[in-house]
Amino acid sequence: MSTKERILDAALTLFAENGYKGTSVEQIARSDRQPQCEKEALASIEKHIRHFCYVYMKK
Q1: How confident is the model at residue 18, as a pLDDT?
Q2: Dist. CA 45–CA 4, nearest whole Å
Q3: What is the C-alpha to C-alpha distance for residues 28 and 37, in angstroms, rounded to an integer?
Q4: What are the pLDDT digits (tens) for 11-58?
Q5: CA neighbor of 28 nearest in space, from 9, 56, 53, 47
Q6: Fewest C-beta in 10 Å: which of 12, 36, 44, 45?
């Protein structure tokens, strides 16, 4: 699984458990077993998640 796929998988799992508004980017980053993400990495993850939600959840 690519990094992007692992992030999206973690995001979907957490969205199902906590809802979109109840899930933080930091939770997603940590669920991917990253010990501690730098701000740049969190911003990148957030960008991918927002794009995913825009494309796939607007239906």
Answers
A1: 92
A2: 9
A3: 11
A4: 888 989 999 889 888 888 777 655 555 666 777 777 877 887 777 776
A5: 9
A6: 36
